Amino acid sequence: MYRTLSSQRGKIAYYQTPGRAPGVVFLGGFMSDMSGTKATYLEACCRAWGRAYVRFDYFGHGSSAGKLEEGTIGGWLEDTLLVLDELTEGPQILVGSSMGAWLMVLAALRRVDKIQGLVGIAAAADFIEDFERLSSVEVQALKKDGICYLPSQYGDKPYPITQNLITEGHTHRILQAPIALNCPVRLLHGLSDTDVSWHKSVKLAECLNSNDVIVTLIKGGDHRLSEEPHLELLANNLTSLLI
Fold first, then answer.
1. pLDDT tens digits, one per residue of 122-148
2. SS3 call for 122
3. CA distance linking residue 212 with residue 206, whole number of Å
4. How many helices (H) and strands (E) does the chain have?
5. How many other β-carbons are positioned within 10 Å of the β-carbon of residue 49?
6. To the nearest 5 percent, what fractions of the chain are helix, strand and coil?
7. pTM here?
8. Which residue in 182, 136, 157, 132 sits closest to 33, CA to CA?
9. Helix (H/G/I), strand (E/B), else coil: 96
10. In CATH, what number is assigned to the domain containing residue 45?
């Protein structure tokens, strides 16, 4: 059974595995939740390694309170910082998937002394900029209703994109200037990712101040990178930072 943290916007649901530091915190993607393949796979790994581990749902996601349509990058960053402050002790490695990789960088910038390393999966940094290429119908929906819906190629529910998400998200962009982080960073990205171009991970690597940044491009890998070989690669990259 999951537990909850109290935030100003409602309950944030989480699972916590006890263990030694450095601990690991998993940050999921937009419209994903903490029951996903990568989140639960890493939990099993950390349990086997004796490492502390936390997975959680942002506001409006999974078992947490709120409506997804009311969420923002800044709000989900607050959720992440709450989890870091309340549920972790000692140095941490943040593992961020898609939007979670953007949030892990934002969180690391605000908790520099607590971060030992970062692992990004299909990093969707500044993904709100991609919405500048919406169709005319979607643009009209945003202007009229403040929201439009983008189809998901995975058969999931369509992605609700609000004007507030886009506008507020612009204030958290990270790929326009050097990123003042010097911790080791590992970035994994599939060359067949049709949701987020692998060029995003390369751009993120270029912006980071750290000299210990490795980008791994996976031929045939999609956006989710949830197949067994991809999970094993993820675990190997994570263990390289757990020292």
1. 999 999 998 877 899 999 999 999 999
2. coil
3. 11
4. 7, 10
5. 16
6. 40, 25, 35
7. 0.97
8. 157
9. strand
10. 3.40.50.1820
Residues 6 or more apart whose Cβ sits within 8 Å of residue 129: 173
- Residue 51, CA atoms < 13 Å, CB-side half-sphere: 24
Helix (H, G, I), strand (E, B) or coil at 186: strand
Pairing status of strand 51-56 against strand 10-17: antiparallel
Tally of domains within the chain: 1
Q: Is 131 exposed, middle or buried (0-12, 13-18, 19+ CB in 10 A)?
A: middle
Neighbours of 155 (CB within 10 A): 6
Give pLDDT tens digits for 66-122: 999 999 999 999 999 999 999 999 999 999 999 999 999 999 999 999 999 999 999
Record the tokens describing residue 109, joined without a space.
Answer: 């910038």
Angle, helices 37-49 vs 228-239, to 10°: value is 50
- What residue numbers bound the domain in which 179 lies? 3-239
DSSP alpha helix (H) spans, 35-186: 37-49, 73-87, 99-110, 136-145, 163-169
Relative to beta strand 115-121, strand 20-27 is unpaired
Quick one: tokens of 187? 């970035």
Tokens of residue 25, six digits = 């915190």
Using CA atoms, how far apart are residues 227 and 230, in angstroms rounded to an integer? Answer: 5
Question: Catalytic site residues?
Answer: 98, 193, 223
